[in-house]
Amino acid sequence: MRFSESYHNTSCLQRHTLGDWMFAVALIVGGGFSLNYYKHFMNGYEQIILIFKVYGCILLGWHWPASRFLVAAVAALSLLSIGLYQADLGRADQIFLLKYLLSSQSAILWMSTLFFLSTLFFWGGLLRSSSVGEDIGVMLCWAAVLFGFVGMMVRWYESYLVGVDVGHIPISNLYEVFVLFCLVTALFYLYYERRYKIRQVGPFVLFLISVSVSFLVWYSVGRGAYEIQPLLPALQSWWMKIHVPANFIGYGAFSFAGMAAVAYLIKAREQKKLLISGASLDCGFFSSRLPSLVSLDDVIYKAITVGFSFFTIATILGALWAADAWGGYWSWDPKETWALIVWLNYAAWLHMRLIKGLRGVVLAWWALMALLVTTFSFLGVNMFLSGLHSYGQL
């Protein structure tokens, strides 16, 4: 038994390459520098959050090597932008790179443009059955994610240039969380397309992201939402740094699952028609292009499992935050009520799949309808209902 455990531990250490450890050391050094340099802006809880986020990024980089290059590029471009500012927000209109590329607003506009282009290339690749179009779509999606995260990091820095008392992590209003939603959803797609070879789901996922980006652009231009505003009193808490990201990891996973369900339903419908007509399944337009129904069913299940786990964590964290801010864990606020509806919906979905063995079209339709319910919880509550969580009205 001891020999077996020793062998297992040795194999775990050998599993990581020199590149893995160099990546880990670089993150630890960067995290240590941030902790030392910015510690006067953070309380003890926020310092713990930073340490765990560094650890989480290391694990992500080890599990998904492609994410290492994203982390390195985001750090490099963000530091370049911060260096160009020289603690003067007015330089955003004076320095070429800031004005047209690396200020938060410019970077987020680039993100939006690249997501639109990625969507076009994905659909072109699917309709023409062209791997070149799909390859370009994936590269543009990665570039959009890069600029989106740079925009978020630089916006965080810019908020402190507006005023030390104004500075905050950029996940506090509808504009900022829409950017976060687009990035998380895109990352889920990029991870699953690489791991499970389902690149052809890209057109559907990027279509949803493009719709979100269209809203983001309208909200930014039409309502001036890009302007950095001070935090509302209830949001001035370290809880926001863990509750909101966990929530949107859940939303991103559910959105990816919902769009994979659209691809599943389209292919299943076409295959049914081909079987009735007696034609070969390879003759169908989508049947010959989209991943197998088994693969789609599997990634829908995996994405919902991940989303449900993070959404559960976010709900618990939200209850703890509510107790800290308002003195009670639960108040049946509209946002809380609809979050519970979303949680119960996906809990029932997982129950029917795991316990009852349900598969196929029924669960795909359910995943799609569940996404609509989740969308109302995310956006509709802000539009039509009011309550303690009304921080992002249109």
UniProtKB/TrEMBL annotation:
InterPro entries: Cyt_c_assembly, Cyt_c_biogenesis_CcsA, Cyt_c_biogenesis_CcsA/CcmC. Keywords: Cytochrome c-type biogenesis, Membrane, Transmembrane, Transmembrane helix. Residues 172-389 form the Cytochrome c assembly protein domain. It is a multi-pass membrane protein. It is found in: Membrane. The chain crosses the membrane at residues 21-38, 44-62, 69-87, 107-124, 136-154, 174-192, 204-222, 242-266, 299-323, 338-355, 362-385. NCBIfam families: cytochr_II_ccsB (TIGR03144). This is Cytochrome c biogenesis protein CcsA. It comes from Candidatus Pandoraea novymonadis. The gene is ccsA.
